[in-house]
What we know:
single chain, alpha+beta, Rossmann fold, Jelly Rolls, 6-stranded antiparallel β-sheet, 9 helices, 25% strand, SGNH/GDSL hydrolase family protein
Amino acid sequence: MQIGFGLDTVSVLSGSGDIAAPAGIAPLSGLLEAENVVVLGASIMDGSFGSPAINAALQPFAAAIGFTGTLVTYSASGDEISNTIARLSTAKTDLAASAGSNLYIVHSGGNNVSNNRPYPGGKAVFQTDYTALMDAIVADGDKVVPLPLTKRFYVEAPLVVEGDDATEANGSLPYNENIIHPAISAYAPGFMVDGAPYANPYAFADRWNDYIGGDGIHGLGKCLAHYILMRVAGRALGLSDGARAGRTLIYSLKNGQPYEYLPGAAYNELTSYSTGANDPVFVGALDTAGLLDPFIEVEAGPFSTSANVTLDDADFRDRLADSRFHDIDMMQSLIGVSGTDVLTLTFTGLYPGDLVTVKVAAQHAFGNTTARVGDVTLNGGETVQVNAGSGALSNQAEFAQIAVPADGKLVLDLAVAPGANYGYLGAVLLDFA
Length: 433
C-alpha cells in the first residue's frame, strides 16, 4: 500500500473539526501491525463496532485497509471512564500474551459528560480517571489512540443546538478540548496534526448529524467504525488530505446490505438499502492504484428500483467507451429510480479547486432503447443521459470537467428521462486531472 499523496502543505480547517494535514507527515509504526486492535468505550462504540463481540463484517474491512491483527471489543453500554478502566484490566489479562504489541482505540467519557454537564461539571474526576486509563494502557508498551467524544446534541436542558456555538459548553466539546486533546498530545502525539485531531469523531458526528437519533447522541452505527478505522489506517500510512491530481476513484452501486468492506479490486462497492437506511454514509475508498483514501465520504440517498442482470461477456464492453468500466462484476448490478423519484449521491471530503471529470454508466438487458434512460445531473448544472438498455455506447455518459467547489462536494441526482420508465446507475468514476 502506498504512503502519502505527494501533496503540497495545506492548512487546518478547524481547531475542533477535521484537519487538512500537511503533506509528508511521517508514517506511524505499530498500528496496522498491532496483534490485537482493542476497542474501549460505551454505547457509542457498541453501536459502531458491535458487542459483546466485534461485528464480523468489520474484520475484513480492517484487513482490506491494511490492519493485520484481530479486532476485539471490551466496550459496554453505560460505562463511565472508571468502568472502562476495569474492562481494560480484563483486556490486559486476556491479551497478556501479546502485551506490548496491541493497539487500544478509546472513545470513553461520554457518560461522564452526560452525568455531570455542563462543563466543568465532573472535570476533576474525568481528568483523573482519563489519565489513569491512558497510563494503564501504555504501561506495558501497548499503543493507544484516544478519540475525542462525538458531538452530543442534548435534547434536554441545558441544550446543545446545531449551529449555535454558544450552546457548545453544554456538551462534549469542552471536555474534548480541555482533557482529551491534551491526552492525545501526550499519549499519541502523532494523532494531533497542527493542533487538531487526525481522527475526530466529534467532527464526524457534527458533519452527519442528520443520522443521530432522537436522543441527540446515538445512531451513527458502523459508519463511525468505518471512519475510525479509516482514519487510524490513514495516519499509520502518513496520508495527508489534499489535491487528488492523477488519481481515479470508481464506485459500483448495488442494492443490499450496506457495504461492510472494500474489495481488493479497482473499484469500491457502494451497497445500500433502497430506503437509504442503515449506515448510508460510506467512508473512505481505494483508488484504482490501490492507494487508500481515508478522507472521501459518500452519502447514498433512497432509491426505488434495482436490478441484477446477466451480461454477455462478449458484448457488454462494446457498450462502454471507457475500459475502466470493463469489469463484469462491477457492472452487472445497478440501482435506479422510477416515476418522479430522484436518487442523490453526495461525494464529500473532496479538495476544493480539484479538477475532476465524472463519468457514469449502467447496463441492463438491451433491446428496448427507450424504457431505461436516466437523466443524471451534476451539482445542479449539466445533465447527461445514460441509456442502460441501449446496445450502443450510450450506456456511459461523461460530464464536462468541473472544479470541486469550496464545500468539497459533488452531488449527482438521477431522475427518469422524459418518456422513459426507469433511470439506472451501475457505476460512477471520478477522474482527477
